[in-house]
Amino acid sequence: MSAVFDLTCDLIRRRSVTPDDAGCLPLIAGRLAACGFVATHLRYGEVDNLWVTHGSAGPTLMLLGHTDVVPSGPESSWRSPPFEPTIRDGRLYGRGAADMKGSVAAMVVALEQFVAEYPDHPGRVGLLLTSDEEGPTNLDGVRRVVEHFRATGEQIDWCVVGEPSSKERLGDLIRVGRRGSLSGTLTIRGVQGHVAYPEKALNPIHAFAPALTELAAECWDEGNGDFPPTSFQVSNLNSGTGATNVIPGELQALINFRYCTASTADDLRARTEAVLARHGLDYTLDWNLSGAPFLTPPGGVLRDTVVAVCRELCGIEPEQSTGGGTSDGRFIAPMGVEVVELGPVNATIHKVDECVDVDDLERLPTLYRAVCERLLG
Ligand SMILES: [Zn+2]
Q1: Does the annotation count 267 as an active-site position?
Q2: Model-level pTM?
Q3: For residue 5, how many other CB atoms are within 10 A of its CB?
């Protein structure tokens, strides 16, 4: 089969469930070293990260991906074993086929082809891979690499993320930004007591209810041309002792904002706390900002290039979206980098029987190579 197909299969066979890399990164580092790339291995805690570059001064194009995958779940639920690449009906099945070992293999092959054809290209092309994208915290992956980049004065101009962005056909959607995610753990304190003596207790459920109604109804912003309005959700709400005759002493809620560039995290925090204070609640609220929103605005070189590549090579006008969850692009964008995400169809990611269309996989290196050629060829 082809180079991209073989490498994808080789990667799928490695059980690289976060944070175990299972040898994916050394394999890739070896291949790219053989065609002149310089590798920097960055290990933080249990996490391996790899940064390989070709070229010296000038604008830098980074391709960004991850070699870790989510667990397969019960292997018996899969039609074929999740870590044994299998073809059926023109699709390649296996954990990570779409998210995102196919893209990683395509990026490697694209880079090999690009430097073979343009050994003295201007600027610099690089590949950044982590084995901690799918984990719960992402503390030691790209977040840490970016701290290293800032400390060493690393400059990046453009970043293409290989996350599976396409909806139904390869190239029908690219991501040009992402919403931010701001979470909070809210504790409301009351006074526990007997339900028959409410005057001697303070029910935190009753105390919180009107504040929750207000928070849920609040219009946080109207969104803007690039993003839908900010949304507030309560994802967990817990209180009570399990007994019918006890007023609980405490209530806990987990809240989350998916927010757009029309709001700031500081503003959302302040407005939330103002509502709680207005209702006279005795509370603590611990905030966790897991990613600020970012946007690569229209008219940028990279965004225009990726749109043109989809239009010309996939024969499709890509939707330019800021929807979906977060990605490691959120760590790169604040360095002042244009970030665009382009990858295969995402219909089966994180599911049983994850797969990638073999024709799409075969075309993917051409797309990444075309971006390299148009920016640095
Ligand atoms: Zn992914």
Answers
A1: no
A2: 0.87
A3: 18
